[in-house]
Amino acid sequence: MSLVRGREGFVRVARKRDGCWWLLDAKGRPWFLRAVHGVQQGLQAEEGHGEEGDPLTRLRSWGFNALGVSDAPITRAGVPYLGLVGFAETAVKLTAPGVRLPDVFAPEWSERAATRAVWRCASARNDSDLVGWVTDETLQWGQGSTDGRPTLLQHCLSFEPSTAAYHAAWEFVLALHGGRFEAVARAWETPLPNKEVVRELTRREQGISTRGYVRDHARWTREFARLYFSVAAAAIRAVDPNHLVLGCRFRGDEGAEVLGACTYPAVDVAMPAWRDLPAPGSAMGAQPILAGEVHWADETFKRPALEGRDRRLTSLELMLRRARAQLERTARHPAVAGYLWSQWEDGPHEQPPFARGLVRGNRREARENTELLALFNARAESLHVRRLPE
Predict the structure, then answer these.
(1) In the prediction, which pLDDT does 387 show?
(2) Distance between CA atoms of 198 and 195, rounded to whole angstroms?
């Protein structure tokens, strides 16, 4: 191994000489994580369903080797798993359309983060089955609006004056422009006689999208994300120095600034959505990754083929062909040390066979997903091995 992160005797992450990252188990053996979020205990055997009621048996039969985060209690029976801290649950909250974040500028942010880490992490610090800690799973970062609505910086500038992020945002913006409103207005190409103008634009859901604003928004987002990840990671490590810090659960709309802050030394392993994997050789592409939110029930995989033989395929055939190719690309990515299937059970408004679950609401197997995943899982580790030149 050319580089190892983590504490001996617990799950670590290591880069081999060929440049590929792998997880190491408590005994130092490399493995490629194949986990599922949201796993729940199934129907009970005494109800006549036998092993169909045991999710761990079913996961193993499909080639999975770990559990993602879940809010439902489940008997893990020695299976590796991801732990969830949930810092946002007890922090001062910032909420707006597209925004759900802790106020990292609030004076009590660090103290509440430390208290939350003690409550969630202390009891598991010696658990060798724990892969690492996920800081939060339902954050929304207010990035990448394509419909002209406000983004994170504009929302922060529009919160009530009692909000710490409101004052921090205005101090940040004015400091970039010599402390003068007219300089901000000129840079943003937007009339700004006073702070209330920004609040009124936000109230009308009218986003500022000029080049000057976008530049300042990127800077603000980097600072916001830096404070979030650095404080969260420090709180975890103060209580549990044995386990990896995995950052938050990303859904695929966070943007480069947020992803760029979720890197070492704050975070040991990031979990970007598998559609957003960084290019090998890029700054983030050199960091270990667990490919997150894996599923193929979206338009990326279902859109019609415009040319070639794929035009003859049905929507389901096309989806599965594209999914197979994307899975193999993911496994071959040198930074990817594993992946996380997005959810155990179909969502309430999802329609099979274009749904994300491994099981239906009645716990029956979703074969259009499980059969392809079982075949891939059997090959994932061999796909991840890179051959060094002779």
Answers:
(1) 52
(2) 6
CA distance 112 to 128: 27
Q: How far is CA 186 from CA 181, 183, 190, in A?
A: 9, 5, 7
CA-nearest of 339, 330, 342 to 278 is 330
DSSP 3-state of 83: strand
Q: How far is C-alpha 251 from the geometric centre of its chain's CA atoms? A: 6
What residues of the chain score a pLDDT lower than 50?
Answer: 44-50, 388-390
Number of Cβ within a 10 Å radius of residue 127: 18
Q: What is the pLDDT of residue 298?
A: 87
Residue type, 257: E
Can you tell me whether residue 34 is helix, strand or coil? strand
Task: Name the residue ranges covered by the structural domains of the chain.
Answer: 3-139+226-384
pTM of the predicted model as reported, rounded to 2 decimal places: 0.93
> Rounded distance, CA 209 to CA 220, Å?
15
- The arrangement of secondary structure in 3-139+226-384, i.e. its CATH architecture, is Alpha-Beta Barrel (3.20)
d(CA 7, CA 12): 7
Whole-number pLDDT of residue 52 = 61
Q: How far apart, in whole angstroms, are the C-alpha atoms of residue 190 and residue 11?
A: 51
Specify the pairing of strand 244-245 against strand 130-134.
Answer: parallel
| DSSP, residue by residue, 240-300 | -TTSEE--PPP-S-S-HHHHHHS-TTT-SSB--BGGGPPPTTSTGGGS-EEEEEE---SHH
- The per-residue pLDDT for range 33-72, each reduced to its tens digit, is 999 999 987 654 334 444 567 899 999 999 999 999 988 7
What is residue 42's predicted lDDT score, i.e. its pLDDT?
A: 64
35-to-42, 111, 160, 166 alpha-carbon distances in Å: 17, 32, 41, 39
pLDDT in tens, 233-253: 999 999 999 999 999 999 888
